[in-house]
Amino acid sequence: MFIDAEPGAERDLSGYKSMIGKSEFLSDLRRINREVSDSLFEDILQTAALLAPENIVMIESDDRSDLIKGMLETGMLLELNQNEYPDSYLHRSNVNDVARSEKDTFICTTGSADDVGPTNNWMHTEKALKILTPLLRNSMNGKTMYVVPYWLGPKGSSFGDAGVEITNNAYVVLNLMIITKVGPEITESFGKKGSYVLGVHSTCTLDSQNRYITHFPELNDGKGLIISVNTDYGGNALLSKKCHALRIATRRASREGWMAEHMMLIGLNEPDGTKTYITGAFPSSSGKTNLSMIVAPEELKKLGWASELISDDITWINVVNGVPFGINPESGFFGVVPQTSYKTNPNAMKTIKSNTVFTNVALDSNGVPFWEGKEEKYPDELWDWTGKKFDGTGKAAHPNSRFTTSVRQYPYLSQDFDNPSGVPISAFLYGGRRRDLVPLIYESYSWDEGVLIGAMQRVETTAASTGQVGILRNDPMAMRPFTGYNMARYFDHHLKMGDAMKIKPRIYNVNWFRKDTEGKFLWPGYSYNMYVLRWVAGRVHSKAKGIETAVGYVPPVEEFRDVKGVLPKVISDLLRVDTKGFRSELEETESFFKTFGTAFPERLWAAFRKMKERTESF
Ligand code: OXD
Ligand code: MN
Fold it and tell me: Quick one: average pLDDT of 523-548?
């Protein structure tokens, strides 16, 4: 077990044993894999011994109704207007706990800080456990301890993974029941996997001074242990998501030869029936969900262009016979709400119209949820995300307010969503919020330069994480907060994965966020991004031209000739590569790359030098 529950003391655990002994999940699991079932029994027991809850509830059905009923009774959920938003609810967080907290997030190993590199916080495993044990001890006194065995990925997929989250928080349980697979349908996959990532989450007192989101990739027999305390916010507390499916997964992926990425994944359908699978990595709250739900503009829709969704946030990629195949480890959205409307993202609006948990949105007098960007005007009467009457100052909904909804409600879910083998990926997009410099799109000259483009991403910070918003920072592959080991080795892993691919995805840098001198966006974005994807598909299938520039190929302006409402002059501005600007960008990036010291791959320096030379000669 990970922690000595009560050093030196014998406790009577018979009560807990009999509660856990009633679990049908464990007894079914026993028939498939006795060793895993016994080990899970023991982990639950030892965790209970430390946390000392009043009772233990195993989540072994996907029926959420009892949980919701209980949460309505305690006020943890508020019922929304059931005519307009059937089976939908509002949860209000503690005001000091509304975003991922990177400063409190640690990767803990028995080695040294070099294991995690300069972009992560590191703590020695022993030191971390010394801090965490007293925080955890008896922290569930008088509370229910929920145990949620979950499965990430398509049922039965050898690329999927098993996890268990132990938590006292019913809101966390409810979210997990939406964003992962739970219940009897997962027992077989879980048992066959033969091991699981263990997550322990305790609300404690929500003391922000003692908030920790810690990852122990070496513990739990090398499968990984996660401990999160004093926070209930999604990204900090839904341990299946960023903690398991990214931080723990990246490190394992690097050893096992696959990739865990902060990427959406869509299938783009062309009028002639061609389908192109495209992934895209964008930092939190930078339009990744919107792109994953893109609707073609009328002119392209009429011709037969359409997009279907596989992932909105995370993609796991395995190379099979030299071809990269992607799956979505998740089963639900935990998406950012503000600015979502029938104009910007009609598919999201349809998806969240029922069966949805909203977090930290505002509420009108009819019990209808409201957020900035939903409608033109504020309703006459409104309560803000904290429950106070909204007086027109500040934001009514929190900028990081969220919706949690099953992907099954998405109207254009790919038929391959459940495909255990995943789908073959032909293109990677990297991007983020850049008001200047980065053109609408360019394509890298090679895999290595594509990895460089990913590694070079400098983007503006958003409300998804605590701290100042709008600050430019290096966020390679949109993975800075989510890589569970040294990013220099993560870059190296990317390069090597390219070597393993016979058919390498083309790699692009995109930027929907360029502004003019008056601060207005140059590109309308949203459905218009389909024109950009059309060029990507054209390149993949060798149909579209590219013009050479210092950093890669850009589309000729004619590729956008049928775009309505954007002047050709603006298009050509959007596609212009500012060679001098990129030279400075490379210089600034160089100092970031140097922070990795000798761990930074020489092969990536070579790609860097090549691009830099071109910025001098173009
Ligand atoms: C998310 C994030 O919640 O990236 O997806 O913060
Ligand atoms: Mn994300």
Answer: 97
Side chain identity at 200, as an amino acid letter? V
> What are the structure tokens assigned to 327, written together?
């799956």
Distance CA 351, CA 46 (A): 40
State in Å: Cα 283 to ligand 2 middle.
7
DSSP secondary structure, 313-338, as one string: S-EEEEEETTEEEEE---SEEEEE-T
Residue ranges of E strands in 360-501 = 362-364, 369-370, 382-383, 402-406, 423-431, 441-443, 458-460, 472-474
Question: What is the spatial distance between Cα 185 and Cα 193, in angstroms, rounded to a whole number?
Answer: 14
Instruction: Map out the domains of the chain with their CATH numbers.
Output: 14-74+104-256 (3.40.449.10), 260-328+417-617 (3.90.228.20), 333-409 (2.170.8.10)
What is the DSSP code (8-state) at residue 240? Answer: I
Structure tokens belonging to residue 359: 């977090």
The secondary structure of 476-520, three-state, reads HHHCCCCCCCCHHHHHHHHHHHHHHCCCCCEEEEECCCCECCCCC
Query: Residues 494-510: what's their mean pLDDT?
Result: 97
39, 285, 286, 444: which one is catalytic? 286
Closest ligand 1 atom number to CA of residue 464: 6
Reference 490, options 215, 152, 313, 260; nearest CA is: 260
Q: Measured from the CA of 465, which atom of ligand 1 is nearest?
A: 6
Question: Binning pLDDT at 50, 70 and 90, where does residue 512 land?
Answer: very high
Closest CA to 102 of 451, 590, 467, 412: 467
Distance (Å) from CA 315 to ligand 1 centroid: 13
Angle between helices 447-456 and 579-594 (to 10 degrees): 80
Instruction: Kindly report the protein residue whose alpha carbon is nearest to atom 5 of ligand 1.
Output: 284
What does the chain come to in residues?
618
Q: Are strands 78-79 and 423-431 parallel, antiparallel or unpaired?
A: unpaired
Choose between 463 and 251: higher pLDDT.
251
